[in-house]
């Protein structure tokens, strides 16, 4: 008899849902037992739903092709078939908040790829290597929801993964201000080049809502638990610009940072090299062996060359040097669809499993 936990994917037919489907094939802890999407997709097999709109380079996994898609609002039925769900639905934020809470109140933990609950005070926003201690707020959240097992954990925005990990390795030096410009791949909008002709030979200087997420979410990730809520840190101050560029996958960030206690370049590189988190210590299946990788080559990192580092779960850094206005500047890169989306959520679920929150 299988000892794997039964998993549901809400929003399984979209781009992030497709990533979940591929990442969960033959996973050592989890087994997909239920997939759900909108009412128009319900009642048909997964293959029938996505055969003409499969967006990934690898083929649709055989294990999922004949699984029948359910309506995400069939909460009673879905809850009886799974131990927890990943949520990657594409709906208005208010509807997402409501449906995620409904699943939690049906005693189904929710690992969310969405932004809807990121600023709910008792919902942790987790980068597993950086703030695993925030999972402790789950007990307070369950008290509010009136649940024994159900809760919500959110993954942060994909744009912050390209620079927050590098800054996190340097928190002992107390960063005071950060300026970041992110150059974000089209998969962050859920599209391919075929679906996004306006981006070809072009750059779009505005991504709605992205700059606020890039400026505010890191402060919650770096915050602390106080009573029944997570309190965001006050410093560093962050300002950002977020730009859509003609790249399929991989968010690049140009980062400028000042510190209360300015480190040497050698100290920074040593922190990058040796930074590890709980996923590495626990040897979680999706965890990169090296969370941060620094390139000495001034022409690296590049999305095309480096986004798949550590199976898309590693963070690449390069071009560290002193700056005339800030203390230092550097470039960071993350795979937005893996580390920044489905892979980051899966790594969070693995951490939840090992820490005893998923049963």
From TrEMBL:
Domain of life: Bacteria
Enzyme class, spelled out: oxidoreductase
Entry annotated with the keyword DNA-binding: no
Keyword match Transferase: no
Enzyme Commission number(s) from the entry: 1.2.1.11
InterPro entries in the cross-refs: ASADH-related, Asp_semi-ald_DH_pep-lack, NAD(P)-bd_dom_sf, Semialdehyde_DH_NAD-bd, Semialdhyde_DH_dimer_dom
Domain Semialdehyde dehydrogenase NAD-binding: 6-138
A single GO molecular function term of this UniProt record: aspartate-semialdehyde dehydrogenase activity
Keywords, comma-separated and alphabetical: NADP, Oxidoreductase
Family label: Belongs to the aspartate-semialdehyde dehydrogenase family.
Protein name per the record: Aspartate-semialdehyde dehydrogenase
Protein encoded by which gene: asd
